[in-house]
Structures are given as C-alpha cells and as structure tokens.
Amino acid sequence: MAEHYAAIKLLHITCVLLSGVFFVGRGGLMLAGNPLYGHPAVKGVTYLNDSMLLLAGLTLMNITAQFPLTHPWLAMKLLLLVFYILFGLIALRLAEQLRTKLIFLGLALATYLFMISIARGHHPLGIFVTHRLY
Questions:
Q1: Helix %, strand %, coil % of the chain (to 5)
Q2: How many Å apart are CA 34 and CA 26, to the nearest integer?
Q3: What single-letter DSSP state applies at residue 90?
Q4: Which residues, other chains included, contact 95 with Cβ-Cβ below 8 Å and sequence gap of 6+?
Q5: CA-based Rg of the chain, rounded to a whole angstrom?
Q6: Least confident of 42-56, 94-108, 118-132
Q7: pTM assigned to the model
Q8: For 120, how many CA atoms within 13 A lie in the half-sphere containing its CB?
C-alpha cells in the first residue's frame, strides 16, 4: 500500500479541492434560488466525492501511521470536519432565513480553509501558528 502513497495523497488533495468547489457551487445555487442545488444527481456527486475523500484520508492515516490520538494536527482537522459538516448542513438544509444561510455558509467555508491550513502545516493552529511545536 505504501507504494501507492503519492497517488492516494493526490486523490485526497483533489477530493479536498472538489469538496470546496462543490460546496461553494451548491451554496451559490441555493442562494440564487436554483433548485439544482438539491437535485439528487448534484447531491450524489458531492456525496461520492466526500466518501472518496474520507476513504483516501483513512488510507493515508494507515499508510503513514499518523492517527488523531497521537498527532494533534490530525485530531484538530477531524474535529473541524465535524463542524464543517454541521455548518454546511445548517446552511444548505436547515436554515430558513437568508441571513442565517449566509452566516453558516461563511462559517463552513472558513472552517474548510482552516482545515486546509492545518493539513498543509501539520499544526493544530494552522494559519494561526506563530512557531512550530516540533
């Protein structure tokens, strides 16, 4: 499996980027009042991508033996993933008022970007780090 590390990492990064694109796209469609944002095919593509993202991430954890309980940056990233999903759920499905939708779209996008900064720096403070712990 380790011989496939580069390909799996590329798949993971591609899925991360597509996840952001799909989220912003669905949010834009929702805000425009376009019913496509909730179309089963659109949702299906996003679910498929997010499933591949999760599978690639779990595979990378296994290959590199980096797990949330031993790597604080990974624990933070996974905790923020829960918030990203929750914020996205509120923005795209549960919120009724435009203002609430916009707030939670913004929170989800900020969380997504913060997760990327954590992954890039392998530090739980991501973009806010002022020094390296290790």
A1: 80, 0, 20
A2: 9
A3: I
A4: 101, 104
A5: 16
A6: 118-132
A7: 0.90
A8: 11
